[in-house]
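Hi all, long-time lurker, first post. I run a small reading group and we've been trying to get comfortable going from sequence to structure in the token notation. Rather than ask abstract questions, I figured I'd post a concrete chain and ask someone more experienced to write out its structure so we can walk through it together at our next meeting. Sequence below, copied exactly:
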Amino acid sequence: MSLCAWAGPLVRFAINPEAPAFCREHVLQRLPVIGQSLLALVGDALLPAGLYGYQIIDVAPGTRFGRPHVELTFQNGFGAFVVWIAPRDLDTGFYRESVHFRIGYFGEPSDKDGFRVVDRLFQLVLQRESALTAVQLSGWNVGISDGLIPSGDTLLVRVTLRCNENCPFCQIDEFTPNLATTDEAIEHSVREASRLGLAWIAFTGGEPMLVPSLPRWVTLAHELGLKEQVMTNALAPSKVDLWDRFRDSEGRPDLPDSLCISLHTRHPDRTKGPGCSDCVYDDRCIGVWRRYADRFGFDEFVPVK
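-- Answer (accepted) --
Happy to help. Here is the structure in token form:
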């Protein structure tokens, strides 16, 4: 299971008494994105006093795998080796595996205490990863399930690739991240966002307003304590009867908490494709507002540009 081993004669290393103390500030400086979550996981092991006779001599972002991970260099009087911690879906050999992470090492510990260091780090990860927030996990690009990856406190889910425009700059395809186009996959995504303590779920596409089940997902998100954003080109939302679909099980209005209306069509010269070359952003916003007002009595409209 070891990824690689150092060959050659045994060399005795002298511990440098002036080696910098790997305090909290040092870790956060070296690892601005994942430093907080690393400290939450294994901070107890990153002490100048060392661990099982090994001293931590370096904490650095890793560059070997093309994914966010961290490399911890430990050294005793006889040698040094590197322990790495990476997202679980990293496609490489590893030593131990938890729910969200894989742990491995480069080099060979000089004695059994070196393996105790690796095992201790793994035990800390195993014990503490469930306490990490979604924001902390997102720094590692850890998928919450089925390849879904949150961004900050939001999970953006693409619920369709269909669209009623044809903007030439759009690059959405079947390889787009966070694509969930079945009712079961989308409902699962909403429940996972709630389980991980995220604040928002954003429905996008394609054009999500073309999907008949969208109101049901909005209601489910509300029931689970989430806020929702619908990212739309605002063609469908300006239709007379669309908002009547957004009602809860008792027939009360149950609207998304936020609409994000595409700004692209404010610039006709950037949208030459059929169906969007003559549309204006302000017209769309006003159309949506009027339908909200007609159905549910809203009397305020503040466009964000």
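A couple of things your group might point at:
The chain has a mean pLDDT of 75.
The chain has two domains: 24-133, 143-296.
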